[in-house]
Amino acid sequence: MTTKTTMQDLIGKNHAGVVLYRGGDSVKGIVLDVNPYRILLELPGGLTGIIPKKEASGYGSSPEDTSIGSVIESMVIDPDDEQGLVVLSLRRASQDMAWAELGQIQEEKRIIKVKIEEANKGGLMASYKSLKAFLPVSQLMPLNYPRVNGADSSAILARLQEHIGKEFAVCIINVDREEEKVILSEKGAYNGQSADTLKNLSVGDQVEGHVSGIVKFGIFVTFGGVEGLVHLSEIDWGHVSNPGERFTLGDKVKVMVLGIDGEKLSFSIKQLHKDPWLDRVGEFTAGQKVSGKILRWNAQGVFIELKEDVQGFFSLNQFGVSNHSELKLRDGDVMEGVILEINANSHRIELKKEEVAEKAAPAKKEAPAEDEEK
């Protein structure tokens, strides 16, 4: 035979050892009954507590995920309502515990994970337990920092919105319960890693990282909690005008460390490969006579083509003029010269005009004529 349990049975007014509660007290109770509108608890001292629906939202517990017989902690709102029940709040108890927990996490400098729920131009909004927390843009790691050309605010917001739904490892840098503010830092969570990376990093090291930013003057690459710049001139031995045509955010790349200045790092991609120009000029040596068609001239001097992708250069001072506009030259005319130097940095072969070379050569000293009288 099944006996129906009534509200009066659940409330159980005849228990001995009644305990008096005050507003704000924290109390643990055993779940007696649950429905979509309230949770009933058996409290110490023989009283029955009730958590109304609006006060039932707390991390890990709600009418939907609370089972009969489980123990939950809540806060006293009203110690004795007109029904003789202790009115409780799971929501407020959850917040109290969350605030206390956040303070302890900050003090112990622990790393926690939070899920990003919103984005604005200043940063990202997350929540920890029942509390809202803010992750400012300035506290993001390089890979997640919204670096865009021209600091366009709409582009920055679009980049930040890409993080909604992601989990971030962070530390807590400020907890202010009075102002109800929690400030997070992703960078702070990786400070130890960054310091270790920098301590063990040397110029010439080859490392693998991810593209964390693409700008007009190069790309940023991050690894081990640090970030460095690959300048446009260090991406390839050939000409690169738009890094965005070669890379996308998150691409895995290998780089060589060119410079370390505190936390400021410079990288190179092209230094990992032999300069193909050196192979193209392998047939040329200093002192060799060469010739080529005139390509152009400017205030520096005259450039001729020695072979495909190899240029020779005559400095302007070899032509006896003060301004390159005075030069009497035509595109395509052939000029001859002697190789002075093969300059790998500028990717050109420096030349001198052959007649200049002849004038510069010391005159041979003639032997003195013998004295005819001897």
The structure class reads: alpha+beta
Radius of gyration: 39 Å
Oligomer: single chain
Predict the CATH topology of the largest domain: OB fold (Dihydrolipoamide Acetyltransferase, E2P)
**Major sheet, described briefly?**
5 strands, mixed, barrel
| Overall mean pLDDT | 84
Low-confidence stretches: 1-16, 356-365, 369-374
Q: Going across the biggest sheet, name each strand in turn.
A: 1-2-3-5-4
How many separate domains make up the residues?
4
**Which percent bin holds the helix content?**
10-25%
| The named CATH superfamily of the largest domain | Nucleic acid-binding proteins
Beta content comes to 35-45%
Count of β-strands:
20
Give a summary of the structure in a few sentences.
The chain is α+β, with helices and mostly antiparallel strands and 374 residues long. It has 7 helices and 20 strands.
Give a topology summary:
Elements (H helix, E strand, L loop, with lengths): L6 H5 L14 E10 L2 E5 L5 E5 L18 E8 L7 E4 H19 L3 E9 L2 E6 L2 E6 L16 H9 L5 E10 L4 E5 H4 L1 H9 L6 E10 L2 E6 L2 E6 L20 E10 L2 E5 L7 H5 L8 E9 L3 E7 L2 E6 L18 E10 L4 E6 H7 L14
Parallel strand pairs: 3-5, 13-15, 18-20
Antiparallel strand pairs: 1-2, 1-4, 2-3, 4-5, 6-7, 6-9, 7-8, 9-10, 11-12, 11-14, 12-13, 14-15, 16-17, 16-19, 17-18, 19-20
